[in-house]
Amino acid sequence: xxxxxxxxxxxxxxxxxxxxxxxxxxxxxxxxxxxxxxxxxxxxxxxxxxxxxxxxxxxxxxxxxxxxxxxxxxxxxxxxxxxxxxxxxxxxxxxxxxxxxxxxxxxxxxxxxxxxxxxxxxxxxxxxxxxxxxxxxxxxxxxxxxxxxxxxxxxxxxxxxxxxxxxxxxxxxxxxxxxxxxxxxxxxxxxxxxxxxxxxxxxxxxxxxxxxxxxxxxxxxxxxxxxxxxxxxxxxxxxxxxxxxxxxxxxxxxxxxxxxxxxxxxxxxxxxxxxxxxxxxxxxxxxxxxxxxxxxxxxxxxxxxxxxxxxxxxxxxxxxxxxxxxxxxxxxxxxxxxxxxxxxxxxxxxxxxxxxxxxxxxxxxxxxxxxxxxxxxxxxxxxxxxxxxxxxxxxxxxxxxxxxxxxxxxxxxxxxxxxxxxxxxxxxxxxxxxxxxxxxxxxxxxxxxxxxxxxxxxxxxxxxxxxxxxxxxxxxxxxxxxxxxxxxxxxxxxxxxxxxxxxxxxxxxxxxxxxxxxxxxxxxxxxxxxxxxxxxxxxxxxxxxxxxxxxxxxxxxxxxxxxxxxxxxxxxxxxxxxxxxxxxxxxxxxxxxxxxxxxxxxxxxxxxxxxxxxxxxxxxxxxxxxxxxxxxxxxxxxxxxxxxxxxxxxxxxxxxxxxxxxxxxxxxxxxxxxxxxxxxxxxxxxxxxxxxxxxxxxxxxxxxxxxxxxxxxxxxxxxxxxxxxxxxxxxxxxxxxxxxxxxxxxxxxxxxxxxxxxxxxxxxxxxxxxxxxxxxxxxxxxxxxxxxxxxxxxxxxxxxxxxxxxxxxxxxxxxxxxxxxxxxxxxxxxxxxxxxxxxxxxxxxxxxxxxxxxxxxxxxxxxxxxxxxxxxxxxxxxxxxxxxxxxxxxxxxxxxxxxxxxxxxxxxxxxxxxxxxxxxxxxxxxxxxxxxxxxxxxxxxxxxxxxxxxxxxxxxxxxxxxxxxxxxxxxxxxxxxx
Amino acid sequence: xxxxxxxxxxxxxxxxxxxxxxxxxxxxxxxxxxxxxxxxxxxxxxxxxxxxxxxxxxxxxxxxxxxxxxxxxxxxxxxxxxxxxxxxxxxxxxxxxxxxxxxxxxxxxxxxxxxxxxxxxxxxxxxxxxxxxxxxxxxxxxxxxxxxxxxxxxxxxxxxxxxxxxxxxxxxxx
Lengths: 978, 174
Hints:
The complex is a heterodimer of chains A (978) and B (174).
Chain A: E1 2-5, H1 10-22, E2 27-30, E3 48-50, E4 56-57, H2 60-70, H3 77-103, H4 110-127, H5 140-153, H6 163-173, H7 176-186, H8 194-202, H9 235-247, E5 270-275, H10 286-305, E6 309-316, H11 321-330, H12 334-351, E7 358-361, H13 365-380, E8 384-394, E9 399-400, E10 406-409, E11 418-419, E12 436-440, E13 448-457, H14 459-476, H15 481-492, E14 498-499, E15 501-502, E16 519-520, H16 522-525, H17 528-537, H18 542-545, E17 551-558, H19 562-576, E18 585-589, E19 592-594, H20 609-612, H21 619-628, E20 636-638, H22 640-669, H23 681-702, H24 706-727, H25 729-732, H26 737-761, H27 766-776, H28 782-785, H29 815-824, H30 835-840, H31 850-857, H32 861-883, H33 888-908, H34 913-922, H35 934-941, H36 945-962, H37 964-976
Parallel strand pairs in A: 1-2, 5-6, 5-17, 6-7, 17-18, 19-20
Antiparallel strand pairs in A: 1-3, 3-4, 8-9, 8-13, 10-11, 10-12, 13-14, 15-16
Chain B: H1 2-14, E1 22-25, E2 30-33, E3 41-42, H2 44-54, H3 65-82, H4 89-100, H5 114-128, H6 132-137, H7 139-149
Antiparallel strand pairs in B: 1-2, 2-3
Helix pairs in contact in B: 1-2, 3-5, 4-7, 5-7
C-alpha cells in the first residue's frame, strides 16, 4: 500500500491526518502536483492511495474511510452524511475561498462564499450535546472536516462568530495527527504557506454556482471529433437516388455467360489482364499472392461484372537454373519438377478461388515458337548486338553461375549481400561480374571470370521509341505511382544493351546457329510467356496480343517486376515491329511483410499458399484480409491479431451482421417475402448514401484501387446497420398499422442494400457473395445490373419477392486460435524430433577436448586450410553418391561426416558453428539443420566444444534421417529470395 | 426532483415494501429522509447507503474494506463530478470512466454495488445523448452501462438506451 501526496495540496492534510490517527502502516510518497499517479484518470489527482489489489483510490474522503475501516471502525449514517456534505458543499466553497484569498487577494470576500457552510456546521454542532461531530469521540468525519477547514480557520482574520465551530476546530486541531499533517503539507503555516499558493496556481479555477472544483474543459481534446460523414447529400441527389431505385431491374442488360475462347469483340471494352508469372519451384507466400494473382483476379472479376470482355491469363514461369538445380536435388528431370510444381501452384490458386480464364506455363512449344519468332524479328531489324561477355564460372560446381547464384558486395552501394542481377538495397541492376568479392551461393567458393559470346538487345537504339510510347501509355492509362516512378528512373539513367542469352540448358533454345548451346535469358523469355500461354488457350491469340486498337492490357505485379514490364519487354515488342499489344495499365503493389518482418521460407516465417487452407480459415476470409491490406501505395504487414480483429469487427459485426439482420427480418417478420416499401425522406437519404458509396466503389475499381474500394463496401453496411438501429423494425413490427408499414419499408430497403452488397463483394469474396445471393434468392440479373455505368442502386428485390433461408455468413476468430496460428507460423524454431534424445544424453565433462577449445578461442589458420580442403572433398563425394542415386543410408553417413567437417572448420576459423549451420540451409546439400538446437547453442557459448559437437551431430543425424523435409526447406529457402 | 425519483427506484429495486417520505432542502434540492426512529438523513448517497442497510443488502456496499472504499469513491464521484457537470467535462468523465472500466465488470470490480446503480442513474442523461460513434469510442462505459440497465430491477424510472452489440465504426480509419 502506498499513499501519494503532494506538498501544499490541502486535500493531503486529510489523508495524512487520518493515516496517523489510525496508525495504519503505509508508505507515503511525496510527488509533484502534476504527477499522474492514477493511471485511469486523464488529469493528475492527488492524494491517491495504491491499494493492495493494484487499484487506486483518488477520493481523499474514500481514502480516509478506507483507513478507518482498516482500523476496524465501521462508518455510520451520520459519518457518511458529514462526509457527503464535506464533498458536495464544504469542499467547493473552501476551494473557491482559497482561490480568492491566496491567488486573488480578496480576503474580504471570503465570508460571503463560506458563510453558508460554516453556519450550517456551527448550528449542527450547537444542536449536539457531544464533544465532536458524531459522538464523544473523534471520528473520521471530524478529522476530514477539520482538515478541509484548516487553511481557512487557522487564519482568525477570516472568520468571525461561529463560536461552537471555533471551539470544535481547536479541539480537533489539538490531535497530534492533525498537527503533524498540517506541518507536513502546509508547514503549519496554513494560508500563508508558499506551497499552497503553488498548488492553487496549478489548479483550474472553480466553477461558480455548483462551485465544483473542476476544469473548464481546457483539456485539449486528443481526438478531434471530426465529422466523418464522407458526403454531404443535396436534396437533388436524394431525389435522384429514389428515382434510380424505382427503376428496378427490368430495363437493364444482363451479363452474358462466359464462353471460351474469349476473343476481343467489336464495340466492347476488351480487357486483357495478366498477373506476373509465379516462378514454378517456389511455393508462393501471401505477399506473392496478393501482389499479383489475387489482385488481378479481383480486377478481372470486377471487369466481368461491369460487362467488359475480360480475358485473364497467367501461368507458371518454369525455365531457369533454379529449376535445373531443384531437379538435381529431387532426382527428377526439370520437366518433371515443373509438372509437379505447376500442379502445386494451380491447386493453391484454385483454393484461393483465383478465376483464371487460363492458367498455363512457359515450357511449351508455343513459347519456343513465339520467343524464337520475336528473336528473329529483332535480329532481322538489327536490334540485337553480339558481344563477348565475361561471366562468372564456379570451378567447384563446374558451371557458369546464373546471376541468382552469385552473391557479393554491391558496386554501387556496398551492400554486402547483393545478388548477381540486382541489389536488394539500392535496387540497381548489376552485372554479376561487377560484384565485388563474389561468392558462389551453392558452395561459397569464389567463382572465376570466363568469356563467352552473347546476344544483346540494343535498348539504346529503341530508347526514343520507348519514351514516346511510355509518354502515351502512362499519360492515358492507370499506372500506379510506383510503376511510373521506377520506370522514369530507369529511363533517366539511360538504357544499356541487355544480354538476352545464357549458358544454360533448361530454357528456350536460341535458334541462331552461332549460339546453339545457349538459351534465352529468363527476362527476355518469361514475359513472352503471356503470349504463349494465351496461344495455348486459343489459336486466335493474336487477336489479343497483336491488336492494340481493340485491346486494353493490364499487367499486375509486385514493384520489383516493374522495369521488365515497362522497359525491357516493351522494347522487345516494339523492336519486333509486329503491332503487338503493349501494356496500357501497369499495376504494381508494394511489399507485404509478415508481422513486421519478411516472409522467409528458410526461417519458416510466414504463411505460404499451401498452408493457408490448413489454418481452417475460409478462403474468402483470407482473400478479404489480404485485399484489405493490399500494399497499395505503401508497404503493409500481415498480422494474425489484426486478421482476427478485422474478421470479427468488419466481417462478423459489420458486414455479416447487417446482411444477416436484413435477411432475418424478412424471414421472421414477413414470412420470407419482401414487404411493400413506402419510402420516406430517411429511406431516400440512405439510398443516396449507399448510391454515393457505390459510385465511389466503381470509380476506385475502375482505377484499380482495390483496397480503397473495399472500404466502400464496409461503409455501406455501416450505414445499413445504423439505419436499422435507428428505425428499429423489430419493434415497429409489434406496433400499429403505420408502425408495421414502417417496419416493412425499413426491412425491404435493408434487404435490397444487402443484395447490392452481395454484388459488390463478388470480386473480393466470391463464395460469400454467392451465398448471400442464394440466401436472398436474388435474380441472376442483379450481378450485371447494379454495376453498369456509374452504378445503379435499383430495387432488385421488389415487394413480394421470396427469399431463401438466411444463415450467418461469418465465424468469429477466437484469440486462442489466432495465438496458436501465430505460434505455428512465427518461425520460432522448427520442431526437431531430435530434441528429447539430445536432452537425454548424459552431460559430458566440460572442456574435455582441449584442441577444440583452442580452436574456439583463437582461429587456427593452418587447420582451417586443411579442413576447407577436406570439406570440399567430402562435399564432392556426397554429390557423386547422390548423382549415382546411392542408398539413403550411405549418403546419410557421408553427409554426417561432411557436417562434422564443416563444424570443425568453423571452429577452427574461430566462428560459432551456428552461422555455418544456417548457411548450410542455403546450400544445395541435402542434410541441413533447421535452426540449431538450443542445447547445442548453450554448450557452444559455454565453450563446451565437445558436447556441442556431439549435440550437433545428434541433430544432424536426426535431420538426415528425417528425409526429404529438410531438402525442401533448403531449396525453398533459396528460391524464396528471388 | 431527480434524486427523489432515484431514491424511489432504488427502494423498489431493493424490495423495500414501505416507501419512505422524502423532502428536499436548499437550492440544490438535496434529498432529506425523515425517519421516526432517529434524526433525519441528508444527502443522496447517505440516504441510499442507509436504504441498502435497511434492506439488509450490505454486499451492495462492497464486501471488503477495499471494495467499500471503491463504492464510496464512485458514489462521491457521481455527486461531485457527474452531477451538474459542465458540458466540457463530459468528455473527461467518459474518458476516465472508460479507462477505469477497461478491466472491470462493475465499478467496484466484479460485484454489482450501489455505486453502479447511482452512477447509472446519474450518467443516464449523458449516455442517452451520445451518438453511436461516441458510444463506441467509450466502449467500456457503454458495455458497463448496458450491463447495469439490464441488471434486474435497476432501470425503473429511466428509458432504456439502445446499445449496439456490434461496432458500427472501427477506430482504424475514422
